[in-house]
Structures are given as C-alpha cells and as structure tokens.
Write a structure and sequence with these properties.
Oligomer: single chain
Number of domains: 1
CATH class: Alpha Beta
Order of helices and strands: EEEHEHEHEHEEEEHHEH
Mean pLDDT: 95
Distance between the termini: 28 Å
Structural class: alpha/beta
Helix content: 25-40%
CATH topology: Spore Coat Polysaccharide Biosynthesis Protein SpsA, Chain A
Largest sheet: 7 strands, mixed
Shape: globular
Strand content: 15-25%
Number of helices: 7
CATH superfamily: Spore Coat Polysaccharide Biosynthesis Protein SpsA, Chain A
CATH architecture: Alpha-Beta Complex
Number of strands: 11
Radius of gyration: 18 Å
Low-confidence stretches: none
Length: about 230
C-alpha cells in the first residue's frame, strides 16, 4: 500500500556535540540523512518524502538531494520551533486525507522495509501504529535518589519511529494539540489525547536513533553486520 513520509530535519542535535545538524554528519560513505532517505527512495510503496528543514540547512540538503539522485523528495517545508511544529507544517502540504503518512526520525537510518509495510497496513486498518521493541532492562521508579518501586516490564515498550497514521486522524490530532498549546513527546501521544487507539508493531533493536557521539560507533557496527549478512 502506498504512503508518504514526513521527516522532521530542522533540529541541531545538540547532544551529538557536532556543531551542526547531526543529520549532515558523515556515516561511512554518506551523510546520516542520506542513509535514511535512501530507505524510502528505494521503497516502491513510498510516493513522496517531505523534509522539514531549518532555513540555514537548505543549501546543504538541496545539494544532497541532487548529488544522491533522491527523486522522491518533495519541495522542502520550513521547520518550526519544536519537532511537533515541523511535522505539522509538513502535514499541511498533504492533500490525500484518507491516505497513510509516516513520521520518521531522520537520525534512524536502519528501519527495515518489512516493518514499514507492517506499520502502513496496521495504520490503514486501525488508524495509527507505532514501531517499538520490548523493554529488556529492569525498570525502577525513583525519587530523591531512592527507588520507589520496580515497574513490571512485561507490558513496557521502547517506542521508535516510523509512526504511521491515517492523514485525517493525524491532522485532527495536531490541530487539537496546536489549539490547546500542548506539546507531546511523539505524534502518537497527540492521537492518544483524542482517545484514538494506537497499534504496536514490533520492530528490532537495530532501529536506533543516533543521538550522542557514541551512537555513531553502534551505527558502524550495524552497517558492518549488514554487510556480513548477519
């Protein structure tokens, strides 16, 4: 089933300590954002890629789109103050309200086609779906430096992206959040505020988000593992 994908790319990624947009950092033979974009560029079901960018990065992103032959990237959308604003700005450019839209972190270059397909199908069926993996570690709730309780982890999931939605549902959720001046930690939170059900699609632990310098070492290891067919 066809879909469009929004990739908010206007942040600076301060925790990466790169002094520039972390998506422009080199990972092996190409920038991080190109790794991510090529996943969707090569997916026949992806119709358009909508990038929300910072004005300062427009030239850099324009050059990447041209140099790597990224034909599915739509005209850039200017990002907002928060990630949520950047997604909403991009969402406003989509006309097909009954279609499916994915929202994906530009710094997650290892999402797999099989998981994208599952997300799109579940969103088409249920309206909203998120990629996630089961929590592996013991989780404890603490306050003032002391453990208050150990949280039962069997029902806990670490949420990733993509997150997939019926366009009309996500538009309604973002509009409500905007009017309420509510800022959520992810797009699914906005849908949950409407009382909407969000399906969980199990992804894998390679679908990491590159946030700190150490993550680049893990990314290189994932690339090497892929090369070896592990």
């Amino acid at each position: 089933m066809n879909y469009q994908v929004i990739i908010p790319a206007a942040g600076k990624g301060k925790r990466m300590k790169a002094g520039k947009n972390k998506l422009l950092l080199q990972l092996e033979d190409r920038p991080v954002i190109v790794h991510t974009l090529q996943v969707f560029e090569t997916d026949n079901d992806c119709e358009h890629i909508i990038l929300s960018i910072h004005p300062d990065d427009k030239e850099a992103f324009s050059n990447l789109v041209k140099d790597f032959g990224l034909t599915k990237v739509a005209p850039f959308v200017m990002g907002g103050k928060e990630r949520q604003d950047s997604v909403f700005n991009a969402l406003k450019t989509i006309d097909d309200e009954e279609g499916i839209v994915l929202v994906h972190d530009g710094a997650r270059p290892f999402i797999k086609k099989e998981h994208i397909d599952s997300l799109v199908n579940r969103a088409n069926k249920d309206g909203a779906a998120i990629a996630a993996v089961p929590v592996k570690d013991t989780i404890k709730k603490a306050a003032d430096g002391f453990v208050q309780e150990t949280v039962e982890r069997s029902s806990l999931w670490m949420v990733q992206t993509p997150q997939a939605f019926r366009v009309s549902l996500l538009e309604k959720a973002h509009s409500k959040a905007s009017s309420d001046q509510f800022c959520g930690t992810d797009d699914a939170t906005l849908v949950e505020r409407l009382g909407g059900k969000v399906a969980v699609v199990e992804s894998d632990y390679d679908n990491i988000k590159l946030t700190t310098p150490e993550d680049l070492y893990f990314a290189k290891a994932i690339i090497e593992k892929s090369r070896k067919g592990v």
